[in-house]
Each structure stands twice: as C-alpha cells, then as structure tokens.
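General statements about sequence and structure are easier to judge against a single worked case. In the encoding step, the backbone of a single protein was reduced to a row of integers, each denoting a local shape. The record that follows shows the chain in one-letter code together with its fold in token form.
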Amino acid sequence: MNTHAFFEYLARRAEADTAVVSTLRRSLSFDPGMFAAAFPLVEPFARGLSERDRRTVYLAAGLWASAQRHESGPPIALATAMERVARESGSSSVESRFVALLDADSDELVWRLRHAVALTASSSIAIDWSELLNDLLHWETPARHVQRRWARMYWQHRPPREPGEPTAVSA
C-alpha cells in the first residue's frame, strides 16, 4: 500500500469537501473499519490487505482526521512528537503514556494512539502520517522493531534519569 498517496488523497478530498474530515473523525467512534460512511474514502486503498491491516488503515485515517486543523510545522514521527511534548511540558505522564503505547497490543493500540495523537495535536505538532501508518502495519512483528525504533527516537535526546528520580512505570 502506498501510504503517502493515501494521505495525499485524503488531504485533497478534505480540501474539496470538509465532510471528509468529519466523516473520518466520526469513524473513531466505531471499531476501525465498521463505519459505513468511511468506506468510500478508505476501501480503494485497502484492496488486498488482511483484515487486520484494513482495520489499521481505517484507524490511521480516523486519527489523521482527528488531528486536522490542529497541526502546524513540518511533519515528524509520533515518537519524536511525544518526546517534544514531554520536554516542553515537563510532564512525566507523557513518558508513562509513551511506555504504555509501546507495550500496547492490537486491542489497546486503538485507544493508546487516540490519546497520543490528541496530545500531540493539542501542542500543534504535525505527525508524519505515512510513516505512522507504515509503522502500524508492522506493529505486531515478533522482533518488535517498530517499538524499539520508537524507543530510540524518544529517549535518544532525553537526559539520563538521576538516582531517586521517579520512573515512568511504577513497579
């Protein structure tokens, strides 16, 4: 699947018809791939995909719509965006949310991603949607290479934690 072409298509459609964004945003109220009004927008790009991957494309489209009109600046990886929010806000809860996101299975991923995207959108950070969708399509690989790459992106610029400083995950 050409993820870049998919999001370009959604952006063009949204420019011509504002109902596109509201339809995809509303689709987040349903299980991914179950909101009939979103079918014409997503199905042409979901041809030949497994049911799991098809649901992932619907999820990414809904998340994209939820962040529209809030994003500004050049698009960056979600992990990098969350690190920026953590750094700028000084909140340790962002790191906790990020750790939970990295550990999420496919059932939890929908909700964890909604919170992560809302958090970055509230800080007006633009997400690289094509990269995010590609990563989500490979989320469940046994080697967890996506999660490990996201962890590197997030913590590579963070200062080491000092002794006695609270950790993101409580024991």
